Fold this protein.
Amino acid sequence: MRKNRKRILIGIPLLAAAVFAVSPVLFLLTGTFMGTREIASYIGPVLGDGEGFAVFRLIPLYPTLANVVELLLDSPEFFQMFWNTAKITCGVLAGQLAFGTPAAWGLARYTFPGKKKIYMCYILLMMMPFQVTMLSEYLVLDGMGLLDTLWAIILPGAFSTFPPFIMYRFFCGIPESLIEAARVDGAGEVVIFFKIGIPVGSSGIISAMVLQFLECQSMIEQPSVFLKTKSLWPLALYLPEIGLEEAGFALCASFMALIPAMCVFLCGQEYLEQGIVAAAIRE
Amino acid sequence: MRENRTVRFYAVRILAWFFAVMFLFTAISRVTASFTVARVVVENPSPRRISHVVTADGVVEKNREFAVVCEQGLLVKTVYVLVGQRVAAGDVLAGIDMEYLKERIASVREEIHVLELTNQDAATARDKNAREAAQALARAKQDYEQIAADTDVVVARAAEKLQLAKDAYYGFEDTIKAGAEYENIFVELAAREAAMKAAQEAYDDALCDQKAAKKNAARAVEDASASQTPDHSVEAGRLQIGQKQRELDRLQELCDAGGEITAPVESVVTGISVETGQKTPDAAAVTLADLSSGMRFTAKIAKQDAGYVSAGDEATLSKNGARFTGFFIETVKSCEDGSLEVSVLLDDASFSIGETATVEISKQQAVSQTTVSRNALCQDNTAWFVYVLDKKDTVLGEQYFVRRVDVGVKDKNAGYAALEDGVLAEDTMIVSDSDRYIEAGSRVRLQTP
């Protein structure tokens, strides 16, 4: 009885907080099926087109599928940007798997001259915001002739330092005895990496991939600086261009952009929790 | 754990389906966009001459017309021609009744005879009147002279008596001065003065009478002279005889010709004023169009094309698929409704009066540096404008959008329009055709030829 009461007392505020945290997603879902006029009447005061306070309904007064139909059938621009985002995300994740994972393994399992300095460089680069490295990246990419191409986004992302840092923590947690046993059995370093390192450290790899996926979905600074051609823009640059007169369409597009992130999150939720812990250690 | 696996399983499936759906709708939205995006044909402004071809339907008419006149009042026996009929020189147009004509000739002859007799009488009467008038005048003059002479005598006698009276009176005065008796002198003086006065009065009366008599005689002479007014009746009679004679000559000529009214030259009948059984009118019996003077083609040019036609312009006529060149606009006449009536002189035997044909007048203006096809020119309530293609970098790549550009039109015909220079560059892409409705800001794509 006391236990139940305690649960209720703790649960209610937590539930309220959870609802409060989820409410933006609910607004997105509701606004997807709301007409533009109805949305404008609710949030007009916020955007300067009305008086009073902004309100919102969870259930639309006049639900409509017009926004969904317009998005799916009459907006090739949305799909162009969606696939740009998909290409960038796949490229970055593939790059991270190809280069970040071995780098993290090397830093975690091997001792070599300058290891600490390299690790410190990783930490340093991880701490720097994009604005600090933007100019150097721009000059390098321009020198390589990669500006205004998707490689200008993919390559810096593929060589990002944060995922190796996440994976490094997990690779560090693999018992040395397991590695030694494999060596005794005659396994080479490559075999050890592929047969032991990756399977045992998969949770770290997946959490790093999930975090990197979420970051790729919301990447806005790099594309706005390195991409001039609009046909290469990702979804994160398209959504802010939609105005109040297409508010319903904007909410629908945002909800559609949210779906892959939600699915990936659900897939890697368990590993993500471990990754957040590892990120907390970084903080 | 199992729960997590289930959640992961369904999440992966949802994600896979999501990407499949997105792929499908990517294709569908592209297809839909291709249907809704207008396909346009573009052109660049180019230098060109704007030519105006004005066409109008008209009819071939006579160029010169003349009248065949016949004596008025003759009975028409037969009319041999119809309006529009072509006749040669000497062809009979109408026939007059010979009996009636002969009766008419005889009647005219009698009239002439009567006139001659009347004229003779008039001449005789005139002579007699002249003699009488001369005689009256001579007598009046004689009377005047006689009266003048007679009255001169009377006046002379009165003057003589007066002189005597005066001499008596003034002589008595002298007697008085010589010393005569007082009482008798005054009586005598008074008597002599009275006599002098009476003589004076008689003299004055004589003068007045003479004056009055002369005046009356002079008036008689004047009256005698005035009675001699000019008499032209004989000359008028001669003129009437002349007219009748000429009429007789014409009638005789017509009679000698058998009562036939013929065409003097090759021509086309344009009007007939005589009818069988009716009398010939005072006006022309038949009007003919002289073919030797050519024909005239007339047509009406519409008001909107009136500015492109002027006298001297080269014209081409066409009928039944055949074209005839080498003609020129002879006259241009403005009509009340703003249209123009043009005429072309024809000397080509290929045309005949009453035939319809089409005239084509082509006029070329000076070269204009900025011309576009007429389809590219649009108009709304405010101005003329064209749609210009702008290339923009969009999410879907480089795309074309149309932009409205207001232009000034210098000249235009059915095919092209000349625009004012300086608005459009040489390399400007102008939309000349579209497979669906477009407006400013519409996204379009180029139609592949």
